[in-house]
Design brief:
Elements: E1 9-11, H1 16-24, E2 31-32, H2 47-65, E3 70-80, E4 83-84, H3 91-101, E5 105-115, E6 121-132, H4 137-146, E7 166-170, H5 173-177, H6 181-190
Parallel strand pairs: 1-2, 1-3
Antiparallel strand pairs: 3-4, 3-5, 5-6, 6-7
Length: about 200
């Protein structure tokens, strides 16, 4: 008796951070196919619900294009209280995000949706608390000039120079980067994919 072939793993994202995290966890995707959805929050939508809605929507769009595959989608939201911080469009917006996070704790929600080869949807949301030290105007300006904020929720990338600003992380560092690996591995295992 032979084992059935391993289903293909499709990453519903163009994020190199997510691809690298999956590969480090021993679960490299077979291909990447971003959903390209409008990520604008709905009126009065809370950060956790926003991340979950987008992860599920991305997974469904991509699963429809890859029947029989396992599809993994994720969305990461940086929230200051109930406020969803954007992926900054320019330097001024990046500086405003960092000024808002300066000297305070914020929450990073990372939602993951896996649609199995059988069509079953499985979801998890990780919430990680991150506290930044109080930032000087020069520190904000230097970080913004380095352009690490481009394409990053809340205007920062935990893998880069922002580490010098972080006083404390309570939760999943990989979730802050873009994919909570413990939750993701569990969802993929339930869908028949193990490292």
């Amino acid at each position: 008796m032979t084992d059935s072939p391993r289903p293909r793993l499709i990453l519903a994202s163009a994020s190199p951070r997510r691809r690298d995290l999956l590969t480090q966890a021993g679960l490299p995707p077979d291909t990447e196919d971003p959903a390209d959805l409008d990520e604008t929050p709905l009126p009065r939508e809370l950060p956790r619900a926003h991340a979950l809605r987008l992860a599920v929507a991305k997974a469904r769009v991509v699963a429809a294009r890859h029947p029989g595959a396992v599809v993994l989608a994720a969305d990461t939201v940086v929230a200051a209280g109930r406020r969803i911080l954007p992926k900054p469009a320019d330097e001024a917006q990046a500086a405003r995000c960092l000024a808002l996070l300066s000297g305070r704790q914020h929450t990073v929600y990372s939602a993951v949706c896996v649609i199995g080869s059988d069509g079953a949807e499985r979801v998890r949301v990780n919430a990680t608390k991150v506290r930044f030290k109080r930032l000087t105007p020069d520190e904000i300006a230097s970080y913004v000039a380095a352009r690490e904020w481009q394409g990053k929720a809340g205007g920062y990338d935990l893998r880069g120079r922002v580490q010098a600003f972080v006083q404390r992380i309570n939760g999943s560092p990989s979730g802050v980067i873009g994919l909570p690996l413990a939750e993701t591995a569990a969802l993929l295992a339930a869908a028949g994919l193990r490292a």
